[in-house]
Each structure stands twice: as C-alpha cells, then as structure tokens.
Write a structure and sequence with these properties.
The protein has 4 domains: 97 residues, Thrombin, subunit H; 109 residues, Thrombin, subunit H, CATH 2.40.10; 87 residues, Pdz3 Domain, CATH 2.30.42; 90 residues, PDZ domain (Pdz3 Domain, Roll). It has 497 residues and is α+β, with helices and mostly antiparallel strands. The radius of gyration is 35 Å and the shape is globular. The chain has a 7-stranded antiparallel β-sheet. InterPro entries: Chloro_Bact_Ser_Proteases (IPR051201), PDZ (IPR001478), PDZ_sf (IPR036034), Pept_S1C_Do (IPR011782), Peptidase_S1_PA (IPR009003), Peptidase_S1C (IPR001940). GO terms for molecular function: serine-type endopeptidase activity. Pfam families: PDZ_2, Trypsin_2. Keywords: Hydrolase, Protease, Repeat, Serine protease, Signal.
C-alpha cells in the first residue's frame, strides 16, 4: 500500500511541475517582441573580453629570435644599368663615314637607364655586404638601403660568377651583422628562414624546412666558366621571390647558413622550391676576395661522372654511392697522388660524397697548395691517398690581384680599371687612358676614358702592360683594341717607328 502511495505521489509531482514550467514559459513569451519579418538569424554567442596574445611557444618552435637577429642586417640592393641601342666599332675613318651616313654613325645612342634590385647581407660591421653576382653584374651604379632606411653608394670589392657570390663595400661603421653558421650541420627537415629586402619593402621573412642538400640545378654553368661552376645548393621550401636574391638563409638561432640565389619556377614566381649557396662556400669566397682580390680555385685535376644504376652495371661497379673518375689530367694533383680513371671517390677528408656536387663543394673549400685526404674504391677495395690541390694552370701558386699603379707613357696617363667597371663591361683588366690631346695618341682618334684591353695579340691587364708591349714594337702599325665606359667597343691603329 505504501508503495502505491509513493508512486502516485511522484506522478502527481511530475504533472504539477510540468504545468508550472509551461505556465512560466507562456508568461515569458508574452513579454517577447514579435518580429515583423520571417528572416531567420543564426545564433551568435559572444566570447569574453580580449585576452593577451603573449602565447608561450616551446623553445625551437618559433621564429621570433631568428627574425629579430637577422632582419636588421639584410639590405636592399639597387642597381642601375646604361642601355645602348647599338655597339659599333670605331675607327679613324669615322669622320669620313659620318659625312655620308650622318652623325649617328659609329656611336651608341643612349636610352633611359634600366633599374634592377635584390637583397644583400651585412657580414662585417665596417660595411662589407654579400649578395649574388647576378644582382650586381655589369651595373653602372650600386646603392644599398639599410633596414633603418639609410642609403649608401656601394663599390664592388669582387665577384665570383662560378658560385654567384659578390662582395660590396659601403662607407659606414657599426652596422648590424649576421654571423656565419655552419651549413654542414644543417639537416634535412630542419627549420630555416629566408630573409630578404625585396622592392625596398624592408625586411621580409618566410619560413620553411631544408628539403635537400647538395643540389645541382645547372644555372651557373656558362661557356665562359665551363666546368668551373660550383653548384651544391641548399634546397628549401621557404618562399623566395624576385628581389630576394642575395638575401639570407638563417637557422633558428639567426646564424647565416646560406645566401638565397634561385627558385625553380615556370612562372618566375615562387613555386615551392628555392635554393641557397651554403655558408661554407660563401665564407671562403668572401675571405678570398678580401685577402687576395680573387677567388682561389683549387682543382683535383680529374674529370668526374655521376653514378646511377645503368652506369654502375655498364662499368661493373658494386656501389651507387660516390663519384666516378672518367679521366685524370696530366701533371695534376690527382695524377701525382696515384688516382686513375675508373676509381670511385667516396670521401674527402672523411666527409662522404655520394654525388659530384658534394665532391665539388668539398674541394671548393680549399686553395691551391692545400692537401686533402681522398678515400676511393679501386677493384672493390677501399683505399686512401693525399692529394695536393692545384689551380687551373696546374700550379700551387695563389693568384693575387696586383695593386696596379698609373703609368705615364708617350705623354698620356694610363690608370687601372676598377672592379666595378670590369664587372659592368665584362672585362678582366685593362688600362684607362687620360690626357690624349697632349700625347702621341692624339692622332688616332682615341678619346679620354678609353680602356685598352689588347695591343696586337697581347692582353692588357694593367697600365704597365701598355708601356711594355708598345716599347717592343720597333716599326709598322700596331692595333689597339678596347672599350669605352659606355660599352662602345673600338680599335685604333697606331704607327710605331
């Protein structure tokens, strides 16, 4: 009986509670404002007040430190190029030919200068800046805009087309710098930042990972440098676009591990692949340019070839790792060390090399006269030998740019040519003439500023060469070749006797 009474009480309570709830809803509903249209609005729920954005990210997972360290030392590089509509040879016959063809004969017609730009990295507080050679190649004028918007005119200290690295100098002190990092320690999958200063937007930073190392994409090889180019790029997926060339690739400490150089793209814009010259090569090139004025290229003295499955089967090789020696040059360091065609190089100074780009990168770190340990396979057996590296002339001598001085000869003054003028005109030396009107060269038609690059069959590298070669001619006519600062090429005959 008690159980039935309990159940009945619960049921009555439920009915009573439901009635109260419905009544309360109706009372509240009467107070609502009735909407006059039928449009339905989504339910919106507002969050609380603004919260602090100072999120603590675990060490090594953010790019703040690297960006703060590197961006002040990345600059905008602006270049200016003179454009000529034609380049004709000049000769003493010009006055007669102009009488028939007009004043335009034999002259290049100036047009508005072209403007180029890129990025650069300050590596020394007293004004030394690294950029790409292709950023400043043949520029008439180079200007640098700092991260703090200061502007300086820059001079070219030196350039190396085989690695696409150039060194500039501005007259400034106490500049922010980026310290060199060790590109050898970079690992595939490691985070890196690409820092540039494109289109003078001030520094821009993009992030990516190291996708590969030792990449060869065949962009530096030309008929001029043949097999001298060094391509062992760091490949990343950090966004790099035109204007970022010459900028910094840094690790999460903000250390310089590469100079951004190229992108793989069919459109000209970033498409997922960018390439940087590793800092191991950059630092060596910069050091050479500062010490010697020229890059000291060390050569093994052997023609090499990549090994793939087909080639290994053809040659009966038991490995796909290493670099195959196709030929050894006579009197080279490789020959003197006992290396032969058919050997497979596997390491340089105990650093493994699996492909030719890695071998070239390792050798590029050294200078002529340096000795390196070469590990190789011959007849399936591991062997080692020490190779003394040589230069292109099969010598161990270092090539140092001479401090050429002005020379006075036959009434004219001959001055050395600056590195910037050489780069602009595509020449490797010469002698610039001044004071032609009061000299024995006045009858040739030559004008002040003409740069002599060849006398007869001899190359002129410095002012002293002019006197040396012209003194040796006792009679007859000597032909002098050269170029004017505006790019106009010319030749002049001069009588000796």
């Amino acid at each position: 009986m008690k159980t039935k009474q309990f159940i009945l009480g619960v049921a009555l309570s439920a009915v009573l509670g439901g009635g109260v709830a419905v009544g309360s809803y109706k009372l509240l509903e009467d107070d609502k404002v009735v909407q006059t249209d039928q449009q339905q609005y989504p339910t919106v729920r507002y969050t609380s007040d603004m919260r602090s954005s100072n999120v603590v990210v675990p060490e090594g997972l953010n790019f703040i430190k690297a960006a703060q360290v590197s961006t002040p030392a990345v600059v905008h590089v602006m270049t200016e190029y003179s454009v000529r509509s034609s380049e004709r040879y000049s000769s003493p016959m010009d006055p007669f030919l102009r009488e028939f063809f007009g004043d335009g004969f034999g002259r290049s017609v100036p047009r508005s200068p072209q403007i180029g730009s890129g990025s650069g990295v300050i590596v020394a507080s007293n004004g030394y800046i690294v950029t790409n050679n292709h950023v400043i190649d043949r520029a008439d004028k180079i200007e640098v805009v700092m991260d703090d918007k200061r502007k300086f005119e820059a001079t070219l200290v030196g350039a190396d087309p085989t690695t696409d690295i150039a060194l500039l100098k501005v007259n400034a002190d106490n500049l922010p710098t980026i310290r060199y990092g060790n590109s050898d320690e970079l690992q595939v999958g490691e985070w890196v930042l690409a820092v540039g200063n494109p289109m003078n937007l001030t520094s821009t930073v993009t992030a990516g990972i190291v996708s590969a190392k030792g990449r060869n994409i065949n962009i530096l090889r030309t008929s001029a440098n043949r097999d001298m180019s060094i391509e062992s790029f760091i490949q990343t997926d950090a966004a790099v676009n035109p204007g970022n060339s010459g900028g910094a690739l840094v690790n999460l400490n903000g250390d310089l591990v590469g100079i951004n150089t190229a992108i793989a793209s069919q459109t000209g814009s970033f498409a997922g692949y960018s390439f940087a010259v590793p800092s191991s090569i950059v630092s060596k090139v910069v050091d050479d340019l500062l010490k010697y004025g020229e890059v000291q290229r060390a050569l093994l003295g052997a023609s090499i070839q990549e090994i793939d499955a087909t080639f290994a089967k053809e040659k009966g090789l038991k490995t796909l790792d290493g670099v195959y020696i196709a030929e050894v040059q006579a009197s080279s360091g490789a020959e003197e060390a006992g290396l032969k065609a058919g050997d497979v190089i596997t390491a340089v100074n105990d650093v493994k090399v699996a492909k030719s780009s890695q071998l070239l990168e390792q050798i590029a770190r050294y200078r002529p006269g340096d000795k390196v340990k070469i590990s190789y396979l011959r007849d399936g057996k591991n062997r080692n030998t020490n190779v003394t590296l040589k230069n292109l002339n099969n010598s161990t001598e270092l090539v140092k740019r001479s401090n050429a001085k002005a020379v006075t000869f036959d009434g004219a003054t001959f001055e050395p040519v600056s590195r910037q003028e050489m780069s602009k005109l595509g020449i490797t030396g010469g002698a610039k003439i001044k004071g032609v009107a009061d000299s024995k060269f006045s009858d040739t038609g030559m004008k002040d500023g003409f740069i002599i690059t060849r006398i007869d069959r001899y190359e002129v590298n410095e002012p002293a060469d002019v006197e040396k070669y012209l003194k040796n001619f006792e009679g007859g006519v000597v032909y002098i070749e050269g170029v004017y600062p505006d790019g106009l090429k010319a030749y002049y005959p001069i009588g000796k006797g």
